[in-house]
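User: quick one, sequence for these tokens?
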């Protein structure tokens, strides 16, 4: 889900990074600290280019999206009745109940999108989500202007999940 949302955000705000998204996201998930630190320095996000180093937004977007998904999961679980929490947890951990070599069941009948939010977000939920995303972006060293752009894109994507198909 993190990768799906982050890819949509990158397609919206940094289309030029789409061709390297897969390899950068693999590097991020292999070692998030290193992917965010750049060339051995923990202060500069991953960059590339000749002469002038251009900022690669993908690791920053992945970090912010991971925190957003974590926050959304907490918000969603807090809004669900006890039976709903049990059902959601069963669905999340269902993959662990499969026999080796069998594929995951098709969830298309159960939801409209793998990135769908199960509850309607209230204004205070959106504000909390924005705070979490912007704090993460600040910790990653993103400039305020780009932080607003990324936060708006992540929140927009989380509020309007991609339709199935």
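Assistant:
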């Amino acid at each position: 889900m993190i990768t799906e949302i982050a890819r949509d955000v990158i397609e919206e705000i940094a289309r030029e990074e789409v061709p390297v998204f897969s390899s950068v996201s693999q590097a991020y998930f292999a070692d998030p600290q290193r992917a965010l630190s750049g060339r051995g320095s923990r202060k500069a996000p991953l960059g590339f280019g000749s002469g002038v180093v251009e900022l690669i937004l993908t690791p920053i977007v992945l970090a912010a999206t991971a925190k957003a998904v974590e926050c959304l999961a907490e918000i969603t679980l807090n809004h669900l009745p006890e039976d709903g929490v049990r059902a959601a947890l069963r669905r999340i951990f269902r993959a662990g109940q499969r026999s080796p070599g069998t594929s995951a069941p098709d969830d298309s009948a159960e939801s409209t999108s793998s990135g769908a939010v199960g509850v309607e977000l209230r204004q205070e939920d959106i504000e909390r989500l924005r705070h979490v995303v912007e704090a993460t972006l600040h910790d990653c060293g993103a400039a305020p202007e780009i932080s607003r752009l990324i936060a708006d894109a992540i929140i927009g994507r989380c509020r309007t999940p991609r339709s199935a198909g």
